[in-house]
Amino acid sequence: MKNALTLLAVAAFSAGAYAAPAPQAAKAPITGKHDNNAPITINSDSFQADLNAKILTYSGNVVVVQGATKLRANQVKVLTANGKADRITASGNVVVDDPSSGIATGDNGVYSVGPRTVVMTGNVVLKKGRDVMKGSLLTVNLNTGQATLGGGVKSSTPGAQNTTGGRVQGVFTPNSN
Known about the structure:
By secondary structure, the chain is mainly beta.
C-alpha cells in the first residue's frame, strides 16, 4: 500500500511545472523532499474492498497524509496487481497540498505506479505562493521530471461549449526582494 499513494507526489510537481526559468546548479528531483517511506494515514467516510476485482475504494471526505503532504478527494480508488498498487485514481475535488511545493487541484487525478506518471484533468490549478497556473490537463512523468500543462482543445463548432478548456493561463509575481 506504501507505493499505492505516491499520488501524493503530485504536490511536489506543482512548483516544478512552472518554476522560474533561472538556471540552477543542480536539478532538484520533481518529488522534492517528499519521503515515500513515511507512514501513510487514510481517513474516509466509508471503505469498500472488491477482492475479486482487486479494487480498494475510499469514499466521502477522503484525506490521505504522508509526511507533510496531504491529498483530499471525494473518492480514492486503488487498483492492485500482484498484491501491490498498480493505479490510483482520485476523483472529485482533488487537492494535493505540500507546504514546500504548493497546491495542485483538479477534478480528477490518476497515478500509474509502473511508469510513474501522474495525470490531472479538469480545472487544473497549480499554486505556489502568489504564482498560479491554470489548464485542463496536467501530465507529469516522475522519472524524468517532465511536466506538461495543456489548455485542452477548443471546439471549432460555432456555439459549442468548450468543456475541455482552452488556453493555459499563468500569473507570476516577481520577488519583492
